[in-house]
Design brief:
Elements: E1 2-5, E2 12-15, H1 17-97, H2 100-144, H3 148-160, H4 164-186, E3 191-194, E4 206-212, E5 215-225, H5 241-250, E6 255-260, H6 267-270, E7 274-275, E8 283-286, H7 291-383, H8 387-390, H9 395-407
Parallel strand pairs: 5-6, 6-8
Antiparallel strand pairs: 1-2, 3-4, 4-5, 7-8
């Protein structure tokens, strides 16, 4: 038994070991909970403090990075402004050094440049319009594709009643007939004939060409391929790409078009005009119903850009004339500078010659002055000559002169 004194009333009572253990357990649990709560609050406060410190450090770091970036941007802006000022200064000095004739040509060049830019913009707009028309045309022909099954069935029935040679010739004849039906209305000046030139060992089926004012602006090499359904070895369209491209290059055509009924179940070729430029440049594969549309599409695209190409060529020629003018002006300046240098050299030589002549004349003048002085001296001496002086040391001569003077005056 254990004795326990009540802290309030001072009474002593006894409890057994189990009760005493329970009381101790209660006291321990309450103190532990208080301590646990206190520790938890301390941890929460410490965590909040650490988070606040970390947040302040992070904000400080971000502020420093932002300040550094702003300083770099400000430095770059100052550098840009400095470079702009240098460029403006150089441009101003260059403009001040240009003569009146060059300034006029520069204005013309600026106008031509604006015209070129405008023409280029118009050309780009025309290309976009062509692409839009091509897209619209493709969309339009998608509806026409609904009729392809009937056409294919008809052609299959037609081919079943023909020989192998007639199958190929029938497709060529079909395309020729389609073209001739609209030749005079749509292509009155176009050339469309069979390719009979076999000098290179190979030839296409048809060649389409059209010119404007003597300048060819569109040319197409056509190849027609067909086969009977009962043919044992089926060909693919790709089997003829290489030969068609070779024929296009040998006959100097811009485009190559394969009109084909091969691979009738291939959806790639059944959905319209197929651009295979990823294999060979400027090459298309079509079904027979797109024979006239592909000609119109390529021809109109080339025709629409022809006028802009002519204007661009004209402007380029004008640019070339301006270049020649500047080249001639530069040549004139160089020649003039060379002539001026030579004339200046001759002028300096002449000045030196004049200086030398003046020096020689000065010496001659000095000699003449000295000669004059000597002559004056001689003249003075001559005036001082008398018989008395001449006969000073010659008494006999003097006596002769005296005798003569007595006889008469001496002449």
């Amino acid at each position: 038994m254990q004795e326990i004194r009540c802290p309030n009333c001072g009474k002593v009572f006894q409890v057994d070991a189990a009760g005493y253990a329970q009381i101790l357990q209660q006291v321990r649990d309450k103190e532990f909970e208080k301590e646990l709560e206190r520790r938890e609050k301390e941890l929460v406060q410490r965590k909040e403090g650490d988070l606040l410190i970390a947040r302040m450090k992070q904000e400080k770091s971000h502020a420093e990075e932002l300040l550094k970036i702003e300083n770099e941007l400000a430095e770059k802006d100052r550098l840009i402004e400095h470079l702009k000022a240098q460029l403006d200064k150089a441009d101003t000095e260059k403009k001040l050094a240009v003569s009146e004739a060059i300034q006029e040509k520069n204005r013309e060049l600026s106008e031509k440049g604006t015209e070129i830019t405008k023409l280029q913009s118009d050309l780009d707009l025309q290309k976009k319009e062509g692409e839009l028309r091509e897209h619209n045309l493709t969309e339009k022909h998608k509806g026409e594709l609904k009729l392809r099954d009937e056409e294919i069935e008809r052609l299959k029935d037609f081919k079943a009643r023909q020989s192998t040679k007639m199958v190929g010739e029938s497709l060529e004849q079909h395309c020729m007939t389609q073209f001739n039906q609209i030749r005079m209305t749509a292509f009155p000046n176009a050339y469309f004939e069979k390719d009979n030139d076999i000098r290179s060992g190979s030839k296409g089926d048809f060649i389409f060409r059209e010119s404007s004012e003597g300048t060819e602006f569109i040319s197409i090499m056509f190849e027609m391929k067909n086969e009977m359904d009962t043919t044992a070895t089926k060909h693919k369209n790709e089997d003829f790409f290489k030969e068609l491209d070779r024929d296009r290059n040998e006959k100097r055509c811009e485009y190559a078009v394969l009109v084909t009924l091969l691979e009738s179940d291939n959806e790639l070729y059944n959905n319209g005009i197929v651009d295979v430029s990823y294999r060979y440049p400027k090459m298309f594969v079509i079904r027979p119903q797109f024979f006239i549309p592909i000609i119109s599409l390529l021809r109109n695209a080339a025709l629409n850009s022809l006028e802009y190409q002519k204007k661009l060529t004209e402007v380029q020629n004008q640019q070339l004339d301006l270049y020649h003018f500047e080249e001639n002006l530069s040549l004139f300046k160089s020649s003039f500078a060379d002539s001026f240098r030579k004339a200046n050299d001759r002028f300096n030589d002449a000045i030196k010659g004049i200086d030398n002549t003046i020096s020689a004349l000065t010496k001659i003048r000095e000699n003449l002055v000295k000669s004059e002085n000597h002559l004056n001296t001689a003249n003075n001496k001559l005036e001082d000559v008398s018989i008395k002086r001449l006969t000073k040391n010659a008494p006999s001569v003097r006596s002769m002169f005296e005798e003569r003077r007595q006889d008469g005056p001496i002449t």
